[in-house]
Amino acid sequence: MSFSEFNTSDYQLIQNDWEKLYESARKRCANERELEVVRRAYEFANEAHHNVRRRSGEPYMLHPLAVAQIVVDDIGLGYKSISAALLHDVVEDTDYTVNDLKERFGDKIATLVDGLTKIKNVLDTSQESLQAENFKRILLTMNDDVRVVLIKLADRLHNCRTIEHMPEHKRDKILSETMFIFIPLAHRLGLYGIKSELENIWLKYKEPEAYADVKAHIDRNILEKGQEMQEFVEPIEEVLSKAGFSFEIKQRVKTPYSVWRKMQTKQISFDEVYDLYAIRIIFDADPKSQESERDQCYHIFSIITGIYRYMPERLRDWVKHPKSNGYEALHCTLLSNSGVWIEVQIRTRRMDDIAEKGIAAHWTYKKQGYVGEGDYEMDNWLNSIKEILVNPDVNALELLDIIHNDLTLAEIYVFTPKGEQRSIPKGSTALDFAYMIHTQVGNKAIAAKVNQRLVNLAHVLNTGDKVEIITAEDGKPQHDWLNFITTRKARTQVQDYFKSERKQTVEFGRKTLENTVSGLGFTCDEKTLQRLDVAYDVESREDLYYGIGMGTINLSNIEEILNSSSRSRLSWLRNVLRLDHEKAPEQKAQPSAPVSAFSVATCCNPIPGDPVIGFKAPDGSVTVHKKSCPIAEEIAATHGDWVVVPKWQEQSDASSSFLVRISITGIDRMGLLNEISHYLSMVMGMNMRKLSLSAEKGVFSGYIDLYVNSREILEKMIKELKAIDGIEKVSRIEL
Asked: What is the pLDDT of residue 528?
């Protein structure tokens, strides 16, 4: 922020945004008294931020106005939340206190602003590890009033919209935090529009080339397919109008992030993304009809499948079984006359409001007396948050992992022996289900019956399973349960049971660690243990052993930790990397040790030319990841003070090479393998480490591991390989 006198243009910008907000607030407020509170909040905030500017140079007041606009338009909150959004930075950035706001605007608005201020204080701290405390603060405020989190999401969205004005190291921290925390929260609270926009901004700055390429493909496709979509919609409009429905049809195109994500996870090209388009049929449910909302959705489904063929396996009934964030709709996929599969989403007006505005829309309909299945799912999750916060032994980093998993895990539906439906995270075991039923059922569980078949407690459940837990009076938790349980509740209950056996748990953890380390060919000496103390962020050696014994410390990445530590002295990387110190002038807590060495993270294997982010350890070593690497996202979200800005040298050392893997598929023919290997080794002069290709029924597929000097060379190689007769697809994949 900076201070300088406002000019006429500045005052006009503020006035224009205020007039726009005022019109939106007028529609939302119940009466003139509520609207007057919003007006007073605007005037108070405008005076408090007078002559204050953002990094971009524009008046600071434009930010709270924009946040309030998101709160009313995109989330649908009322006058207290709109007022709190306008005031959300006053306590943090001026001499006014929460008590000052309480006197002027009442307890509730002041409490909302206080919650927002506390979150901001923790987010902005540069003290090591405190970033994780942010999540605990967010959840604590959610426990008191979920509106604090909704306003914070609006604040984060506007900050991301203007993120180009941030220095790169701070931009990386904010975007990683956004992907790890705020995007899952937006999804969990049903705010689809906010979630999608945050994802697109993340991609635009984390993978700028990929974003530009995918967006260009989408824009080009819209121009080509626009008329085709209209021809698909017209017959649907005609038959629904004849049937007497009051409705509107909206067309939706997949966002650049969702297309990119699908291309990454399924290793496909843009042309293979078949669900690029969807249409939404949004209709006014007839309250006088004897048909339920679900039956009315199916009525529309029966009409439109009379003119278009549908794909039975793609039918999704989210009305009977709403998603865990309250989303309700009937999805089907229809075949257009031109041979393109198009997803059709059928929703009532109420369902559409909830799909766009999430939990806030739930409240509105509850006040009107409507309680649906989606409300039950949302309330269930909010209650589970309270359970987590009750446990005083869960530290901030552990809590972060627990909630992140709760936010991001997909759910399946299973049934009790009496036929009651229960939702549980995908990947859950029979033992997880036992603890979901009751703690004592879990503690005494010895086996399970799934669909009448006897299975062990580690059996992974699937949607539709009927599950019965078998217990024994002398049954009790076992240490090895921590190796396969997946849900937070089950893990917490087992850990609580073993707390009285800490000594045995520590010894169990020590032996587990020694066996694991020696099994990987390393020596479990003091030097190795010190590395692990730092890597797992423990205060004492006993905590390390205890965490392993309890299962709170997962050793799945220990080989990477030990290998990267042994490689961290590869000084040759100095020839291809440097730190951009000019971009990080504000990092007061940056470790003072000079850069001793760079190492390339084995989880994502970046190469020169990839957008990268670095993390500097206290000893001065810097580990370099791709900006889009999920591991890097988690580190930046929880340890933002470690972030540095590495840059690839323009003239990198030609002798430096980096391991990459490319996937390759095509039509098999005589001599193709020789042609591929000849091109790579003789023409491109590349060193191949491994080649694994197999052919079946005339089609071949596989991968090649090889060393390259830069992303530019890799892209040239991929382009040339695609030109070889018979090769259908070549793409870079993770090792």
From this structure: 81
Average pLDDT over residues 179-183: 85
Backbone conformation region of residue 490, classed left if phi is above 0, alpha if psi is from -120 to 50, else beta: alpha
Please tell me the CATH code under which domain 2-191 is placed.
1.10.3210.10
* β-bridge pairing 699-708 and 658-667: antiparallel
How many other C-beta atoms are found inside a 10 Å radius of the C-beta of residue 475? Answer: 16
Architecture of domain 210-357: 2-Layer Sandwich (3.30)
Q: Is residue 127 scored above 70 in pLDDT?
A: no
Q: Where are the domains of the chain?
A: 2-191, 210-357, 499-565, 568-648, 658-733
Core vs surface per residue 312-325: b (16+ CB within 10 A) or e:
eeeeebbbeebbbb
Amino acid at 629: C
Selected catalytic residue, list 17, 34, 43, 92:
92
Within 10 angstroms of residue 295's Cβ, the number of other Cβ atoms is 11
Name the nearest CA neighbour of 645 among 614, 672, 671: 614
What's the CA gap between 268 and 152, in Å, rounded? 36
List the one residue out of 627, 687, 644, 651 whose CA is nearest residue 576: 651
What's the confidence (pLDDT) of residue 334? 92
> Residues with Cβ < 8 Å from 256, sequence gap 6 or more?
200, 203, 204, 211, 214, 215, 218
Q: In angstroms, how far is CA 462 from the centroid of its own chain?
A: 23
Higher-confidence residue: 251 or 599? Answer: 251
Q: Which of 93, 128, 411, 496 is catalytic?
A: 93
List the alpha helices (DSSP H) in 243-368. Answer: 256-266, 293-304, 349-357, 359-367
Determine the Cα–Cα distance for residues 300 and 283; give it in Å rounded to an integer: 9
CB 687 within 8 A of CB 657: yes
Average pLDDT over residues 5-29: 94
Encode pLDDT of 407-421 as tens digits. Answer: 666 677 788 888 777
Number of H helices, E strands in the chain: 29, 22
| Nearest-5° Cα angle at 665, 662 to 669 | 125
Classify residue 702 as left (phi > 0), alpha (psi -120 to 50) or beta: left
Question: DSSP state, 620?
Answer: S
d(CA 192, CA 382): 18
Q: How far apart are CA 26 and CA 18, in angstroms?
A: 12
State yes or no: pLDDT of 369 exceeds 60.
Answer: no
Q: Is 424 exposed, middle or buried (0-12, 13-18, 19+ CB in 10 A)?
A: buried
- The strand pair at 621-626 and 597-600 is best described as parallel
Condensed to tens digits (0 to 9), the pLDDT of residues 635-669 reads 887 777 788 888 887 655 555 678 888 999 989 88
The alpha carbons of the chain give a radius of gyration, in whole angstroms, of 28
What mean pLDDT value characterizes the chain?
A: 82
pLDDT at 590: 44
Instruction: Respond yes or no: is residue 209 known to be catalytic.
Output: no
| Catalytic residue check, 328 | no
Q: What is the pLDDT of residues 298-316, one digit of tens each?
A: 999 999 999 999 988 788 8
Phi, psi of 54 (to 5 degrees): -85, 175
Q: How far is CA 199 from CA 98, 160, 179, 183, in A?
A: 33, 10, 7, 7
**Amino acid code (one letter) for 42:** Y
Write b or e for each residue in 362-389: b if 16 or more Cβ atoms lie within 10 A of its Cβ, otherwise e: bbbbeeeeeebbbbebbeebeeebeebe
CATH of domain 658-733: 3.30.70.260
Burial class (CB in 10 A: 0-12, 13-18, 19+), 686: buried
**pTM (2 decimals)?**
0.70
Q: What are phi and psi of 76, to 5 degrees?
A: 80, 30
Q: How far apart are CA 679 and CA 685, in angstroms?
A: 8
Residues 6+ apart with CB under 8 A from 393: none
